[in-house]
Every structure is written in C-alpha cells, then in structure tokens.
Amino acid sequence: MAEREKIRLVWRKIDELIPYEHNAKLHPAEQIDKLVRSFDEFGRIVPAGIDKAGNLIYGHGRILAARQRGDTEFPCIVIDGLSETQRRAFVHADNLLAETGTDAEILRAEMQALQAAGFDVTITGYDAEGLQLGEDVTETQPPPQNVTNCDELDLDDFSDESFSCECPRCGFRFNPREA
C-alpha cells in the first residue's frame, strides 16, 4: 500500500454488502443486541470497512445489528489498495489486534461516574453487575494470588445455572455458560 492509504467514506445499501464467508469472528445474538442499543443511543458513528466491490473487511457485527434494526444503509470506509490476500489477512488481523484487554480499575471508575450522571452504562456493552457498579464499587479487590496446580473445570459437572467465575486479578465475574 502507498504511504498514504486510499480511503473514502460512503453510505452503502446493506443488502449490497458482501460478508466475508471465512470471517472467524463470532457474533452472538447478545452482542448484536448490544450493538443495536448502542446505535439507538449514539448512532452509527463507527463505519464498516469494505473494498471497492462491497466485500466487508471489518464491521460484520455492526452490519448484522443494522440489519436487525431495519436499517437499509450503513456508513462504510472504502479501502483501496489492498491485494486480495492482504484483504483476507486484514479481516482476521482486525478481529484480533483490537482485543488487548481492559484496565478494570479505570473502567470501573469511569462506568461508576457515567452511572452517577444518570447514564445507562449497559449501553456501552459492559455488564454493570460484572463490573460491580452497585454498592460494592468502593470495595477494593484483593491482590492477585499466584495460582498453581489448577485443574480445568468441566462445566458439565455443574448443574447450577448461576455458576460463575471471578477473575482473581480484577474481580470481574462471568458465567462461562453464557460466554
């Protein structure tokens, strides 16, 4: 690609966009529902990426959410200059490179401030309960412990639907059955 990437913003009809059939990123219904709520609150301010032919490079989940909302068009960045191989590779690179983790302490404080301002923080995609934004917000988490000799859990051994796990580092709680 040249020194300066060739991109332009356009609105495209959703039905004319072509999802990449080998996109490995999963888009469960819960994620799509969260994206729909985000669109309702903030608008469609993050475009999808496509090539000149309308092949999706990134934004597959956003397109699914827009379709669920009944939208007929979506903002797209047209990316010129990638070879077919580069385009295919970037689909997967984009899925992975953005997943770096989150500083739980900063996130918890920011979500608490948004919640105090009357904002429904679940619109951000974060689970208020999982972030302990209720009365427990002021509690500090115990320091992480070095855990050794751990056995992998077999979830089939647990019948309780409320089974949950807690990250020993940040205190984030989750139910692996719902992941």
Structure description:
The two termini are 38 Å apart. A hairpin with a 6-residue loop joins strand 5 (165-166) and strand 6 (173-174). It is globular, with a radius of gyration of 20 Å. The longest helix is centred in the first third of the chain and has 14 residues, at 29-42. Helix content is 28%, strand content 15%. It has 179 residues and is of the alpha+beta class. Residues 135-149 have low confidence and may be disordered. It has two domains: 6-97, Conserved hypothetical protein from pyrococcus furiosus pfu- 392566-001, ParB domain (Alpha-Beta Complex), CATH 3.90.1530.10; 104-178, no CATH class. Helix 1 packs across helix 2 (60-69). The protein has four helices and six strands, in the order E-H-E-E-H-E-H-H-E-E. The protein has helices spanning 29-42, 60-69, 84-97, 104-116, and strands at 6-13, 48-50, 56-58, 73-80, 165-166, 173-174. The strands form two sheets. Strands 1-4-2-3 form a four-stranded mixed β-sheet. Strands 5-6 form a two-stranded antiparallel ribbon.
